[in-house]
Amino acid sequence: MFDATANPILGHRLKHIEELWEAVLLKECGKELVDMLRELRSLSSPEGSAKESPELHPRIEKLELNEAIRATRAFALYFQLINIVEQLYEQREQRLLLHQNDSANTDVSVHQFERQESASEDSMWNSGGEVAQEEACKNTLLNQGGPGAKMLEKSWQETNIARRDRGTFQWLFPYLWKMNVPSQWVQNLLNQLDIKLVFTAHPTEIVRHTIRDKQRQIACLLQELYQAEEVGKSMGLTSYWEFEQLQAQLMEEIRLWWRTDELHQVQPQVLDEVDYTLRYFDEVLFEAIPQLHQRLKRSLKSVFPELDPPVNNFCKFGSWVGADRDGNPSVTPKVTWQTACYQRDLVLQKYISSVKALRNKLSLSYYWNDTLQDLIDSLKADSAKMPEIYQKTSLRYRQEPYRLKLCYVLARLENTKERNSRLAEGENLQLHELKENEISKYYQCASEFLEELRLIERNLIETGLNCTDLTNLICQVEIYGFTVAQLDLRQESSRHSNTINEITEYLQIFHKPYNDLSETEKALWLATELQTKRPLIPSELPFSTATKESIETFRTLRQLQKEFGSQICQTYIISMSHDVSDILEVMLLAKEAGLYEPATGFSSLQVVPLFETVEDLKHAPGVMESLFQLPFYRAALAGGYDPTSSSTGNLQEVMLGYSDSNKDSGFLSSNWEIHKAQKALQKIAEKYGVVLRIFHGRGGSVGRGGGPAYEAILAQPSGSIHGKIKITEQGEVLASKYSLPELALYNLETVATAVIQSSLLGTSYDEIEPWNDIMEELAERARQHYRALIYEQPDFLDFFHQVTPIEEISQLQISSRPARRGGQKDFSSLRAIPWVFSWTQSRFLVPSWYGVGTSLQEFLSEKPEEHLKLLRCFYCQWPFFKMVISKVEMTLSKVDLQIAHHYVRQLSHPEDRDRFESLFEQIAQEYYLVRDLVLTITGHRRLLDGDPELQRSVQLRNGSIVPLGFLQVSLLKRLRQPSHPFSNKPSKGELLRGALLTINGIAAGMRNTG
To answer: Residue 479 in contact with residue 492, Cβ under 8 Å?
Structure first.
């Protein structure tokens, strides 16, 4: 249970929100519901798992549907409220840490940071027995000698870092100084720092946008209330009018929330998803992002005052929303075009507001301020090009040059926005191509706007002034341009091969279908065709709908780049990439649309393979090497044929998929294959002088690559980052990371810190071959055991469909795309998100840990004492292994086998119960095995003892989530078994609605979906 005495501030806030929750329910539903909720919660154990209580199940089974739904909604509301309180508390902690570090760094010069040759005791990041355990691990291995000994000695001090401030710039730069990292290394890394976070519309966000809006309002009111409470305390008041007013407002907002439907009314359209995703930029990120650069700049200057900070746009954003067409027929070329216009409209409105504020602020007069000639010349040119603006504003601002200049800037922005609105309505692009005499009234690209802002900035600086608002606006324009986020297009590989197949069949190029050619034949023909100037695709398209849409997608892409600039979309991702031909097919379609020019070798589109299954991950290095051996492909990476240029600047992006590899082979095997693939891909890239950027397709849950980003980045193979990384941010992760400004900044800062730290202080343990051999063995054993259950056990598919809410999850209106590819009810067509989502709801969480226990046990059984010491050493020293074990430990803490068993007993068909009991027993044995081994390796008494904050968060929810599991089972049983005895026979639709509400509630309680 959560211990309020250990954290009185959080305890007080949680008690307050629980009292508010109960007060709202008393008003809305009466004392009977509140008493029932208290009773249901009391039937859970203090540790937060289901008690062996004979009372709980019958009590819930007797509830009428309306009672069950009200209880479900009440628990869901409770979880959402405590999530808000916890987020606000985390934000408070981040602010305190920031202020403490700022205070500590005041007047501290670089000479006060003592460089050291060896790690001191106070740099040990572990506490208590873990430090001694690590020292023992180190000594054991060093005394044994062997190939890893020297590397262990070299890397030992790099792993012992102070935990308190890790992930912040204030910690990072002093640490780099202490570790004797040459300042030139730091400068080189900062010069090439390139971080991109890509928002996706993957259907893991279960909360309605309407509810999210209410949550933001409640978060704002709670923040105001906490501040009022602090003021009251400082004045010696226990209560006063402002506090009471805010309390009343909170009650009102929560009551409005209670009366709002939690379920999506209709399936969202793609543009609805675009709108929702852009809200994070509109409400938080647009204003927050300049602060990230300021934090880095301030922390860098305190330690390395001679170094230059990175460019403002070292951290940028991408988006798949409105561009990801893999399995989503709703994402059409028109939708992608509208998405680009939508994004530009948002950012232009932001700039218009900022420029208006600057115009009010920069009231400098000719009389009292020097005005440089370049600004005067600019005003003369503007008055000639836009005389109507001069006539309208010159009288008012004739003595205020900055205001007059900003009037011209504002007019161009408004004209550009108005033209963009016409384009978004679907009017013909050619109708709005700018004529020569109109160009000066618009901004064709963000660089033109930026140039005018810099002109104003230069003039201010030359006259001894600085304007923070202008500096921030320049930073925002450098990051967001006129696009907000770069759009990544994605499509599944077979769509391209089928398109080429239909085109070649129509033109009668081959004696048999293109899809029947061997990979060698395909690659040879594609390589030849890519080097010809002759068009392949006729202007008229006598093809199927799917083929025509594939062709039109590339033509629209060309139009997008022409209108918005190449930065709007430079990346085309191929999911389920298997072979060289998959990449060359996309290049050929790009060539036909004018995106690749064979004569010059220039390509305005980078083709990015996405390797997802374990087999594809293994083949990835060979595929990329075959591509790098093609001169025209290398030229495309280099920006065209230029014999005088060096090829070392080539950038190749490769995406690695966590979700499907996990679904295919299990958690340990997936993570190890991705780890190996990165190492192998880096070696291939270095061999051919190519700069590699890995794009990590991480989901929110551990089963899909989720978990703390800081630890995940540090666990990447040494030398695989080099200051460049790209990561997906999906679904409910967006709400948890980017709903509040300080949390958003902290998340961005931890990612940036980890990238810099990993690039400059990479671990050497990844190169210890005996360790790699052991991991290879562990991963293969885990894979075999996982697949033996999932793919080879004949009863498992039926088990999955009956004992999890997979069918009901597929009916949630949370995404514009279907839950399955092709609609088949088999594992191959089931997407990874609903797969993980279902196991999370039923508290099994199988994809995140199954197979790990057996693998570790088999390894330990060979040499119990020696191998246990080795695994403990891996955990202490090897970031990759520690990350794996920590993620498994976190997932295990959320498993509740008693609840899971209840799903099996109650939802299994009578004729299947015996065989399903056998499967459950098999899963339970693996759970207890992996739990005990994780505790043995980590040295923890309980799960998550090494991370008290996460332990607190999990325990806080586990106790109240138990009744929701029983409620879900009861409603699923009634829904699936119509003969179930019930006094008032509700309709199937009413029962489904109740079941879907329990899915919402459990997702809120688990803080995780898929």
So the answer is: no
Tokens 């075959």 sit on residue: 626
> Kind of pairing, strands 690-697 and 486-492?
unpaired
Cβ 536 vs Cβ 589: under 8 Å: no
Measure the CA dihedral 709/714/715/721, to 10°: 100
Give 896's Cβ-side CA count (13 Å radius).
Answer: 31
- How does pLDDT run across 593-620, given as a tens digit for each residue? 999 999 999 999 999 999 999 999 999 9
Give the count of beta carbons closer than 10 Å to the beta carbon of residue 706.
25
Q: How far apart are CA 126 and CA 134, in angstroms?
A: 9
Q: Which residues of 79-105 are buried (b: 16+ CB within 10 A; e: fewer)?
A: bbbbbbbbbbbbbbebeebbeebeeeb
d(CA 308, CA 326): 42
DSSP 453: H
Catalytic one among 202, 676, 724, 901?
A: 202
What six digits make up the tokens of 796?
């498992």
Considering Cα of 892, then 896, then 897, then 902, what sign does the dihedral take? negative
The predicted pLDDT at position 646 comes to 45
Question: Which amino acid, 245?
Answer: Q
Q: Is 663 a catalytic residue?
A: yes
Are the C-beta atoms of 598 and 632 separated by less than 8 Å?
A: yes
Measured distance CA(785)–CA(792) in Å, rounded: 10
Alpha carbon separation from 472 to 282, 414, 443 (Å, rounded): 15, 20, 20
Task: Give me the phi and psi of 25, to 5 degrees please.
Answer: -65, -35
Q: How far apart are CA 475 and CA 316, in angstroms?
A: 11
Q: Please classify residue 966 by burial: count the beta carbons closer than 10 Å to its beta carbon, then call 0-12 exposed, 13-18 middle and 19+ buried.
A: buried
Q: What element of type H or E holds 640?
A: none
Strands 596-597 and 602-603: antiparallel
Strands (E), 676-828: 690-697, 724-730
Selecting among 138, 591, 663, 902, the annotated active-site residue is: 663
Q: Which two tokens stand for residue 305?
A: 């005052």
- Among residues 959, 892, 891, which one has the least CA distance to residue 928? 892
Determine the longest span between alpha carbons in the chain, in angstroms. 93
**How close are the terminal C-alpha atoms of the chain, in Å?**
26
For the CA atoms of 926, 932, 938, 942, what is the dihedral angle to 10 degrees?
A: 120
Q: How far apart are CA 897 and CA 351, in angstroms?
A: 53
Q: Looking at the predicted structure, is the pLDDT value of residue 669 above 80?
A: yes
Concerning whether 882 is annotated as a catalytic residue, the answer is no
- Reported as a single tens digit per residue, the pLDDT across 25-59 is 999 999 999 999 998 888 765 555 555 566 777 88
Helix (H) or strand (E) run with residue 651 in it? strand 650-657
Closest to 484 measured CA to CA, from 321, 311, 698, 310: 321
Per residue in 483-517, pLDDT tens?
999 999 999 999 999 999 999 999 999 999 999 99
Has residue 109 got a pLDDT over 60? no
Q: Where are the alpha helices (DSSP H) in 106-193?
A: 129-144, 149-159, 169-178, 183-191
Token match 């809120």: residue?
A: 1004
* 876 Cβ contact list (under 8 Å, min separation 6): 126, 130, 133, 134, 137, 138, 159, 882
The Cα 602–Cα 825 span in angstroms is 44
